[in-house]
Amino acid sequence: MNGKYVYFAITVLFGVLGALVQFLPFFLLQILTLYLLYQYKRFTFLHLTCIMMCFIIFLLIGYHSAFLNKTGIPASTTVFHLQYTQDPKIDGDLLQVQATEQHFKEKILVRYKIQSEHEKESIQTRMFYQRLCTVSGALEKPAIAKNPNAFNYRTYLTRKNIYWILEIQENPLQHCSPLQPSPLVMIKQLRYMGIKYLESQFPGEIASLSAALIFGDRNLFDPDILSAYQKTGIVHLLAISGLHVSLLIAMVYYLGIRLGLTREFMINFLLVLLPVYVILTGSSPSVIRSAMMIFLVLLTVKWRVRIRLFPLDAISLAFLAYLFINPMVIFDAGFQLSFSVSFVIILSAPVILQGYKRNLTRMLATSLVAQLAALPFLLYHYFEVSLIGIVANMVYIPLFSFLYLPGLYLLFFLQLIFGKTPILLTNFFLTIISLANHLIEYLAAFSLFRFIPGRPNVLILISYIVLLLAIFYLWESKRFPKRKVYLINFSIFLLISQHSWNWLSPFGEVTMIDVGQGDSILIHFPHGKGTYLIDTGGTLHFAEEKWRERAKSFEVGRDVVVPFLKGKGITKIDKLILTHGDMDHIGGTFSILKEIKVKQILMPDVVEPSQTEFDIMKEAKKQRIPVIRVSAGAQWAIEENGFYIVSPEKNYDGERNGGSISLIAQIGGVSWFFGGDLDQAGEVKIIKQYPNLHIDVLKAGHHGSKTSSAESFITQINPKAALISVGEKNRFGHPHHEVLERLEKTNTQIFRTDQQGAITYKIYHGKGTFFPYLP
User: Fold this and answer.
1) 399 closest CA partner among 440, 366, 370
2) In this structure, are residues 11 and 32 in contact, taking their beta carbons and an 8 Å threshold?
3) Which residues pair with 665 in a beta bridge?
4) pLDDT digits (tens, 9 = 90+) for 287-317
5) Which DSSP helix (H) or strand (E) runs through 251?
6) 263-280 and 183-201 are packed helices; what angle lies between their axes, rounded to 10 degrees?
7) Distance of CA 221 to CAs 25, 199, 211, 309, 437, Å?
């Protein structure tokens, strides 16, 4: 079976996906695989039977896992007996910790808002492990995705067998009794103590990098530095990978042999060490994968098995074992990236990579192979890939492998043994890390090298996989006629295929993005003829005590609107229309300007702009983006789609909401009214100016507040549909019941973001249909 375990890995993949995604496509792929193995690999009937049995077994395992993936805790439960199972995470005044409810034997995520700075300091010094604590609180379902391509926190936690978030009102360590220590808990406790030790003994730059490379924890990292690593595509270096595990195991084995210990003793020692190391480093998919591979190789040596376990066999068996234990991990991005990249590098090594004799070219080829292997997964999960990552890898892989990894281990053990480290050595690493961090932030700013085609649909995803297989086949095949020409053509097509589809797509849309208590509306025309964004949402931030501040607080523009746009492959906005100066309408603008190219900004022609508007104009000037102050009478058109601004009047000098840009548009065969937070007085003024005005789709003013949507206005325009952008359970009581009653009187169909998520009007050949994101 040497070299054939990879076919079992493929079968296992089809079996699990057949159970957890959709049966028929993966069953057909399995039948095709059996035919190809019989026709071209000359597999015997016994081999084919074993492979089919493997498919059935993992299909049943997948179905069993899906069946068990549900909660057993009643929603009405208020008292819980918890054993904390993970390191607590404290961000500002928010404490989060994972626990197991002892009565129901179910994992749960606990949240607690810390009451004082003194309490925070007390919690940070106390140990959560080896305690059974009684707490009371209310169960809440995790948040769901309410916009297309948004991160679904509920699904993410469900795949980790966590179904509830427990909100508690008192200190989680207040009513606890000690538990007998277990080896697993002791190792986790050791890890937590190690991270805290690094944080207390080293400068922030050294502590954060050491925690990532020694214990697999990135929570100490500055959010901006971590974001720069992600944007440049080298964040994988901050995870403990197969390279780290292999170097550590090789070092321990070599030291043991040099100290006179037998090979047999060292193999047994490493077999025990590997599971401990996995727990000690946080049990990430990349660590588990590499540890499993090394474990299998060591077992074959220990048992003196006659067959030699090749790397491809080792990773295939590790893949099989991992999915046998936890089928749901198939949806984990880290698992997908770790196995896909490792598989492709192992397959490429004998022919493609060995063809490059010089170290520099081989490193470049390896980096390119890794980027290509990761491409479909990166685009699906993150919507973009940094092409500069290929170059960045060549700089940072040697830096991490030959300087950071051994050097930071040395610093850690010197501090641990002697209680101090040479100041010269500490300053050296502090300087190198600071310079490297500045460089990575500089590279992350190169938007020219960011490939953002959006999240691929199923057909595009399949085309990516087919193209990548063709590229690797041609790269490996030395005698294929016109090989280089085909390679260049396929590579170009790989980069332009999804962008081309985005441009050729006959579909347009008007989408009210769910930004909570705020407004943001995307207007996107077919064939790339124009993209407008009306408002950007925004988050109100209040001055807080220093200890309460989060490392990276939620910001609507950065965390909702930008991912929404990138998920659709939108990298350019032709007109950014900011209706008025309220933060909940324009606060997200700075994130938009940072991440998305904006060609023009429209603002209301008012006498006294808000401070936020002044700051936006200042940033726009810096980026050389023209800002146009508009008033009633301005208009423009894109083919049959027209826009006409009806408010405010020039040099408006009044209440801010009344000065909102209000425009009438003809889009997708219907008429629209977008009025920002225009008040009733402004609405009445418009219908007096335009007594024959009728509107098909109304964007209800001021989130459905009774200060807007005047009865006379609603009665005259007689809308067929009304869109209300409003935050779920907002403290203002929006939308007001009077507004809802007015709209119901005119038989207007009401769409609300708090109940239905994003509302999309899909346009095709000049006509459209509404599609709420949530049913």
Assistant:
1) 440
2) no
3) 643, 672
4) 999 999 999 888 888 776 656 778 899 999 9
5) helix 242-258
6) 70
7) 42, 11, 9, 38, 11
Give the integer Cα–Cα distance in Å for 775 and 771: 9
Handedness of CA 514, 520, 524, 528 (dihedral sign): negative
Q: Where in the chain is the domain with CATH 2.40.50?
A: 79-180
C-alpha 34/C-alpha 50 separation (Å) is 11
What's the token pair of residue 222?
């500055």
Amino acid at 677: D
Q: Which residues of the chain have pLDDT under 50?
A: none
Q: Angle at CA 373, nearest 5°, toward 367 and 375?
A: 100
CB 294 within 8 A of CB 245: yes
| CA atoms of 381 and 155, how far apart (whole Å) | 14
The DSSP annotation for 646-657 comes to EEPPTTB-S-TG
Cα separation, 330 vs 564, in Å, equals 24
Residue-level length of the chain: 775
Q: What tokens does 240 get? A: 């403990």
Cross-strand bridge partners of residue 90: 95
Buried b (16+ CB within 10 A) or exposed e, 522-534: bbbbbeeebbbbb
Q: Give first-to-last CA distance, the chain, whole Å.
A: 50
Residue 305: the pLDDT is 61
Q: Strands, E, within 322-419: which ranges?
A: 385-386
Compute the distance between CA of residue 111 and CA of residue 166 in angstroms, rounded to an integer.
Answer: 6
To the nearest 10 degrees (0 to 180), the angle between helices 5-20 and 23-40 is 160
CA–CA separation, 505 and 517 (whole Å): 32
Q: For residue 500, how many other CB atoms are within 10 A of its CB? A: 12
Q: Alpha-carbon distance 227 to 209, whole Å?
A: 14
**Quick one: tokens of 165?**
């978030």
pLDDT of residue 476: 86
CB within 8 Å of 344: residues ≥ 6 apart: 369, 370, 372, 373, 472
Distance of CA 180 to the CA centre of its chain: 38
Looking at domain 79-180, its CATH class is mainly beta
From residue 479, give the alpha-carbon distance in Å to each of 242, 446, 485.
Answer: 33, 38, 13
- Find the radius of gyration of the CA atoms of the chain: 29
Nearest of 638, 642, 739, 648 to residue 698 by alpha carbon: 739
Q: Which of helix, strand or coil describes residue 278?
A: helix
CATH of 507-543+551-772, one of 3.60.15.10, 3.90.1150.10, 1.10.357.10, 3.90.1640.10: 3.60.15.10
Residue 2: the pLDDT is 61
HEC string for 288-310: HHHHHHHHHHHHHHHCCCCCCCC
Q: What is the pTM of this model?
A: 0.92
- 3-class DSSP state for residue 728? coil
Task: Identify the H or E element spanning 494.
Answer: helix 483-504
Residues of the chain with CATH 3.60.15.10: 507-543+551-772
